[in-house]
Amino acid sequence: MVTKRNLLGAGISSTAMAIVLAAGMAPSAALAQEANPVDTDIADEDEAVEATPENVIIVSGFRQSLETAVAEKRNSDLILESVTAEDIGKLPDDSIGESIARLPGVTSQRLNGRANVIAIRGLGPDFSQTLLNGREQTSTGDNRAVEFDQYPSEVVNQVVVYKTPSASLVGQGLVGTIDVRTIRPLEARESVFAIGAKGSYADLGKLNAGSEEFGYRVNATYVDQFADDTFGVALSAAYTDEPYQLQEFNAWGYSGSGEAGSPFAIAGSKSFVTSTQLQRIGVNGTFQARLSDNLMATVDGFYSNFDDDQSKRGIELPLSFFGTTFDPSTATTTTTEFGEFATSGTFENVQGVVRNDIFQRKADLYSGGLNLAYEGDDGWSAFFDFGYSRTDRNELSIESYAGTGFNWDDPNRVGDEFAADDVTDTIGFQSGTTGTVFSPSLDYSDPTLIVLTDPLGWGGSLTVPQAGYYNNRILEDELKQYRVGVAKELEGFVSAARFGLAYTDRSKSLVPDEFLVRLRDGLTELAVPSDALLRPTNLDYLGLGPIVSYDARTLIDDGTLILEPNTSNDIPRKAYRITEDLMTAYLQFDVEQQLGAGMLTGNFGVQAINTVQKSDGVAFADVDGDGAEDRIDVSGGADFWDVLPSANLSLRLDSGWVFRLAASRQIQRPQLDDLRIAIGYNIVTQEDGQSPTGAYPYISGNGGNPALRPYRANAVDFNIEKYFGGGAGVVALQLFYKDIVSYIDNDVAVFDYTGFPLPVGQAPATPIGLLNSEVNTGGGNFYGAELSATLPLDTFTETLDGFGVTGGVGYTKTEIENAQGEIDVIPGYSKWVANGTAYFEKWGFNARGSVRYRSEFLADFTGFGGNITRRLARAETIVDAQIGYDFQDGSALEGLSVYIQGQNLTNQPFVSQFDVPVPEAVIDNQEYGRRFLAGFTYRF
């Protein structure tokens, strides 16, 4: 039971206790002895500190959010960071992802300008886990990483990032666990009705026809308690309709050897302007009932409908292929340590492809659960929790091609050469540190010149053009989790013992639905219907001028473009269904012992997880001897255990110093699509020295690996923290080391093909063969340090009352080896991350400016058909600011807060680099522009 004595014994002051209550948090959540909020104790209101004017220092707004986070950090026995809403339904940032990315040692990757996925301690989203109210969640992405733009910030009350695990923390990640929490009405202890609205403006303007530059968000929250605070309800809803604009330069790559006469030069470009309209509705509801003095029931549910509709228009330019010519002797070059690089020149015979593409992602996310928590008068407590999460996602990608003509039907064409009467372009180029600018000789906005066709013969047909491609990816992700636990308070060094069981059942499937796009009536060329033409899209930022524009969906609907099913075996080969059954048991002992001028608190224990994973899919082999591949349903998987001991000890001194030591065994499950069993294989009859058994013939294949084990690491953390200013300020040094004992990388490994049908007449000597796939391999060292601080400046002098700073800097070093024994570039890894916020808050006025930085990292980019492509992203620095005013007590407008925000004020682009680190060798340069928002919240 959490009492005033226990809170003060853990080092929390009466002021900090008041802050916790004012923020709508249960003291048990702040204490975080149980790492998971669904395990929280029922507070005894008779023993808790009363929130009365005599013993409460009222702090509000951003400063309240910081002080609550400091209290959470101080009183937890796990190493963590957190962010709490400034008020009901009001996180400190426009986006939940932005708020998390400002925490020490945490950063994000942007998608269309939004903070989309989170990296902890320099590692990307594949190495952490996300929970909602302590329960594991499905994702709108292909893998486990939650995309945080699926959660409206207005329905979130708090986010906690655990950097170390405890035995009772179920669903933990390798570098951290992110727990997103919504309001608990009986913990809020007051009735609230609040509404809010904001408008947004994207300063790049309306880049595509039909797009917008202005958007809006509206939200409402209602919290109330009934029947002497024995029943409570919290309801939140938020709706978003906002545009995002993007100007992108993209290079296919760079050709040449870098030697004299063969400089590196841009090999091709596929650049777009993208206009996104994000429409999202999020609804959250929680009902709590104190069924007796000892029993609390909590039922909560969350629903999000997400529609991200993108229009992508641009030109694809093959510059070193398809018969183009480039004379290096006429180019301007610069000498680098990697060789000669062409900064300008001219390409001739360029056959450009005008692209009018669509990318639309729709997702419905359902999440909720039931929690029963029992708190006995004799020190016994218990809980039962059921959680459910489901995501249904449709991801539609439509490519539509147009150009000066269809060339494959020209009898004079030989190989990649163009016929003499083909209309081609002579294009000059200048490559710089932000990409390449072109100087074309054709007018790509002329609808009599640019027609629907297959300009480069991508369809591979001499008579039937492929005028585009239609790819619909249908994903379903469902997760059920059951948990029970029991605890007993004890006397002595061990203050409590906890035991629990959890069962998690998850399944995820992908069904690809793909079509070739043809022209009606078997035509090879067709003018865009005049009534379908839209305002030309301006590519002046690339020097390409305007281009012909239309909506491909309109042309499909009116029959101008015809969909022809793609019958290639490559399509069903992509399909998969993956199931995971996890049985987890834990035993944890809490520690509390007075030691002279301080107190030792913490926990130690062990978590054991049995994993049964299975993948169903298809394989292809000629099993009937007709020379064609046959489709065979196959399945595979693995059954294994992980034993995860952990310990967290904190020495808390009366002087405000806290010393922490944590040690644990940690895991992170493989990406879900790496577990797919879809495998293509054949029989190798020639003795090539590669047979794993030395016998021939043998089987060789490629695909997924359903037998993958998790990433595994042994970790040690050490923290030194100093609290001051009545507990409102902190300076912390965090040191961590992880010994990665099992890593996942692509390699050729031995694979057992037992149960797979074999080609007729080609029986291998043994079912043991080779598989090119993701495999478990050795790891290496991963270590670093973080220095963070939250400093209310009035701690040092009253003249700075209202001023403060918060932020941190983190350094990580990786020495992890890939399957070839080389130091690997880990997805999402940044050596340096830093962030800082300076603020002023007084007399109702508030202002703050924020900066966040991350060094270069291996970033995820969406490729063809929604597949992820990874490229090295340059370092970036993001600058945001906000000013606002809260009308004070006694004012006619009491309860009203108004504010304006500016995001990405320096217009920092998102840039990826060619393998040769020459500044001009840009692969992607994505410019999102600045965003400005103005809004209000009103609390009745």
Automatic annotation (TrEMBL):
Predominant location = membrane
The TonB-dependent receptor-like beta-barrel domain covers which part of the protein? Answer: 353-905
- Membrane topology type, per the record? Multi-pass membrane protein
Annotated keywords: Cell outer membrane, Membrane, Receptor, Signal, TonB box, Transmembrane, Transmembrane beta strand, Transport
Top-level taxon of the source organism: Bacteria
Record's GO cellular component terms: cell outer membrane
Signal peptide from the UniProt entry: 1-32
Pfam families listed in its UniProt record: Plug, TonB_dep_Rec_b-barrel
> Which InterPro entries does this chain map to?
Beta-barrel_TonB, Beta-barrel_TonB_sf, Plug_dom, Plug_dom_sf, TAT_signal, TonB-dep_rcpt-like, TonB_rcpt_bac
Q: Does the keyword Kinase apply?
A: no
Family per UniProt?
Belongs to the TonB-dependent receptor family.
PANTHER family with a match to the protein in the record: PLUG DOMAIN-CONTAINING PROTEIN, TONB-DEPENDENT RECEPTOR-LIKE BETA-BARREL DOMAIN-CONTAINING PROTEIN
Protein name, entry field: TonB-dependent receptor
